[in-house]
Backbone:
């Protein structure tokens, strides 16, 4: 990764990230509505929502919350830029964790009991998905001998062939990362829930708009993780990666609409079981593939 | 049409409705009427809401709660009184504990009558309210939106019933009782 490629990726991600994220969310809401026998909102509804939130009166419980949320947004953008520029995957993972951290601090800073419960649940979600994400980086290194995401471009076969179980593990925790049912514990996009609005309870107007935009960037980045498994030497495989990422997003919508929210104990234990099983079995599989010479 | 009109988020509060109107408000939010077509979302959080739908008449205990919810909502915001109880107090108007409609506690923008209110009336009222919402958004953007003035803290004793306030009626009744007691003693 050169400074130039990073600059290009940064500009592209800043501009295209929210566009794609907004379209994805718009499509999600229409597909969800159709699955429930409704017509659903206009395609650009997420954009209208954010525009409305930006036009609302400026009021906030304290002066820090807004800064924390902006920091979360910046970390997400940097993380995505490193990812799409072919940068270090560990850096990508840690930057996005930092973003979650700022989001959690923003919720805690309000001292609202509802927001605190939401923030607590967000921490549990981070605990649940983080092992798999780190292991993803480790396995990435085992296959490509590099932590740079650009290394996939020199592979002869896509990562998914060597690491099918790691991909399966990623799919499992992706539901948490995309904030989809049954793992949308800290806040969900669906209207009513028991905790007012979870971690975003005290975020209103502009702050909520920033949260929404951050989520658009995140969605694009996480679908990027999925696409990473389907890119290898020929550049045309990028198209395959996009198609697979969209298919996975559709699958997530189906899951979102078919399951009710679970308890955090279930989410935490099963994400860890799936993460550890997938990675242990992947090691065995790799050993077999390499003729026991790992 | 601007964005605030395209994405009105709703907060629903039951003041002391008989639940008839609540059921209708929830019916309006079911897939049958699919209000998400207009970007309407039912939130449980006043800090995210633009429209405040209130059902039922208001008694003294409700006033601080309704005011708090109202004050937690960010401008531009509008209040819709759903059902005749929320408009005026309805059949409960003369009850000793009822102060009247929602407008005894907070300013109301749209009065939507009916007992129980029909989902169609609610949707009509929301559409009517969106015009007011847009007007408020324009005022806010121009920096000339005056904060809405809350009505003076009402009390059940000041409520007029059949041409007389409750407090005056009580005073009269007590005076009468004392007088009768005095006459019996003599
Ligand atoms: S208007 Fe009628 S249905 Fe609605 S709360 Fe009053 S009495 Fe009940």
Residues:
């Amino acid at each position: 990764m050169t400074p130039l490629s990073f600059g290009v990726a940064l500009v592209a991600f800043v501009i295209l990230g929210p566009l794609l994220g907004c379209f994805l969310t718009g499509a999600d809401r229409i597909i969800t509505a159709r699955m429930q026998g409704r017509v659903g909102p206009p395609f650009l509804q997420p954009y209208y929502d954010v525009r409305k939130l930006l036009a609302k009166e400026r009021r906030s419980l304290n002066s820090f919350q807004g800064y924390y949320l902006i920091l979360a947004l910046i970390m997400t953008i940097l993380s995505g830029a490193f990812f799409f520029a072919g940068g270090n995957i560990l850096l990508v993972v840690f930057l996005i964790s930092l973003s979650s951290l700022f989001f959690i601090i923003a919720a805690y800073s309000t001292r609202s009991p509802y927001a605190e419960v939401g923030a607590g649940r967000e921490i549990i979600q981070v605990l649940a998905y983080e092992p798999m994400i780190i292991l993803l980086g480790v396995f990435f290194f085992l296959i490509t001998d590099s932590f740079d995401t650009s290394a996939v471009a020199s592979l002869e076969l896509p990562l998914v062939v060597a690491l099918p179980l790691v991909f399966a593990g990623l799919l499992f925790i992706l539901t948490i990362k995309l904030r989809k049912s049954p793992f949308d514990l800290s806040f969900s996009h669906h209207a009513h829930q028991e905790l007012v609005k979870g971690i975003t309870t005290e975020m209103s107007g502009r702050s909520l708009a920033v949260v929404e935009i951050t989520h658009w960037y995140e969605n694009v980045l996480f679908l990027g993780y999925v696409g990473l498994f389907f890119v290898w030497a020929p550049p045309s495989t990028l198209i395959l990666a996009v198609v697979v990422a969209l298919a996975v997003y559709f699958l997530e919508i189906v899951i979102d609409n078919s399951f009710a929210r679970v308890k955090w104990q279930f989410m935490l234990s099963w994400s860890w079981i799936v993460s550890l099983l997938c990675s242990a079995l992947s090691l065995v599989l790799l050993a077999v593939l390499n003729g026991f010479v790992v | 049409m601007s964005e605030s009109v395209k994405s009105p988020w709703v907060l629903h509060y039951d003041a002391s409705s008989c639940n008839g109107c609540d059921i209708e408000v929830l019916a309006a939010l079911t897939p049958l009427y699919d209000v998400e077509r207009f970007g309407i979302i039912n939130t449980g959080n006043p800090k995210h809401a633009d429209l405040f739908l209130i059902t039922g008449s208001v008694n003294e205990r409700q006033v601080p709660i309704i005011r708090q919810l109202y004050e937690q909502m960010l401008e531009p915001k509008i209040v819709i009184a759903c059902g005749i109880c929320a408009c005026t107090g309805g059949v409960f108007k003369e009850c000793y504990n009822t102060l009247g409609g929602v407008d005894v506690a907070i300013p109301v923008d749209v009065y939507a009558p009916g007992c129980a209110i029909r989902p169609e009336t609610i949707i009509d009222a929301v559409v009517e309210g969106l015009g007011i919402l847009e007007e408020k958004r324009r005022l806010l953007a121009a920096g000339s939106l005056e904060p809405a003035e809350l009505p003076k803290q009402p009390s059940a004793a000041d409520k007029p019933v059949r041409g007389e306030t409750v407090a005056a009626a009580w005073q009269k009744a007590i005076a009468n009782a004392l007088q009768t007691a005095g006459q019996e003693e003599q």
Chain A has ten helices and no strands. Residues 3-289 of chain A form one domain. The radius of gyration of chain A is 19 Å. The mean pLDDT of chain A is 88.
